[in-house]
What we know:
Layout: E1 2-6, H1 11-19, E2 26-31, H2 34-46, E3 50-55, H3 61-71, E4 78-81, H4 96-124, E5 128-132, H5 145-165, E6 171-177, H6 183-186, H7 198-210, E7 215-218, H8 220-231, H9 234-248
Parallel strand pairs: 1-2, 1-4, 2-3, 4-5, 5-6, 6-7
The protein binds NADP nicotinamide-adenine-dinucleotide phosphate.
NADP nicotinamide-adenine-dinucleotide phosphate (NAP) binds near residues 84 and 85.
Amino acid sequence: MRIIITGASSGLGAALALYYATNENDLVLIARRENRLNDIAQKCREKGAEVKTIIADVNNFLLMGEIGKRLIEKPIDRIILNAGVSTGHAGGITPFEDFYRLFGTNFLSVHALLEPIIPKLMAQKSGEIVFISSLASLFTMPTSIAYSSSKRALNAYSEGLHYQLKPHGITVMTIMPGFIDSEMTQKNRFKMPFLMTTDKGIERITHAIERKRIRYAFPFRFTLMIRILTLLPQSLRDKIVNFTNFKKGA
Ligand SMILES: NC(=O)c1ccc[n+]([C@@H]2O[C@H](COP(=O)([O-])OP(=O)(O)OC[C@H]3O[C@@H](n4cnc5c(N)ncnc54)[C@H](OP(=O)(O)O)[C@@H]3O)[C@@H](O)[C@H]2O)c1
């Protein structure tokens, strides 16, 4: 399979690259940190995969479009849109700069790269597009407004794309993980409920991809808590959010 992974220099993206690194797969890995990406690429090659690296900032939308056009020179079996940033636990009024950066990286960059790729997948009548969203897309805490908004926008985009591309034989999947150990979560200074190891998180994500789950949120108990929370009357939700926030020291 030819698999493209954005944000493959650390965390989930790097772990996904290593998971798919076999002599049956041809990987294209994208990220900004050249040394880190080259290290991951080398480890993938040692496991038998053909690997190409592309050093790029996904916020350079014109460049993403160009990369997309180059990537379609060969068939694409799976593209995993994983590159992402968070602001961690951000108190106070969210600076516009944070919104701009998070929407650029977590959302707009995705279509900048996919715009030239989608017609190619439609012509192939096959292919998988996997979005790494977040459980934070399902409920917005006052401390994660920019992150949750960007991931919820991603969910809306992926939902529409699923309906648009399903008749063309293309599978669009949206994965919504809870907290998984990575550079992103290691910066968090609050208690992360149901925090999973990277290995466990990758096991869940890859299993969902193999089963072609269109929308997959995990871990189950955390997802259930969030889904119940969204069904409660607003006044009760306010109390729970205030209490949780107070405990976090916001
Ligand atoms: N860990 C969790 O608990 C968790 C939970 C839910 C969802 N997620 C999502 O999972 C994805 C991966 O996050 P992670 O936890 O693995 O964090 P991470 O270790 O910080 O990895 C983020 C990756 O994204 C890349 N990236 C960030 N900004 C980029 C940019 N402007 N251009 C190109 N690449 C960029 C980084 O590479 P460079 O810095 O080298 O560019 C890195 O490879 C994100 O979309 C995140 O929102 C994570």
